[in-house]
Amino acid sequence: MKKISFLIILFASLSAKSQTITQTNLKRLQHIEDSIKPFANDIVNAEEWIDRFRADSFFTRGFVRALVIPNSFYYNFDSLQISKVIAPDSSFKIFTWQVMKDFSYYRQRGAIQMHTDDGSLKLFPLFDYSEFAVNPTDSVRDAHHWIGAIYYKIILKTFNNKKYYTLIGSDENDARSNKKWIEVLTFDAAGNPQFGGKFFSYPITDETKPKQPAYRFCLEYKRDGGVRMNYDERYDAIIFDHLTAEGDDAKNKYSLIPYGDYEGFRWINGVWKFLSNPFANVIFDDKQSTFPAKLIDEKGKVNEKKLIEQSKKNMKKADQNNQ
Question: How many angstroms separate the CA atoms of 152 and 83, rounded?
Answer without folding.
Answer: 7
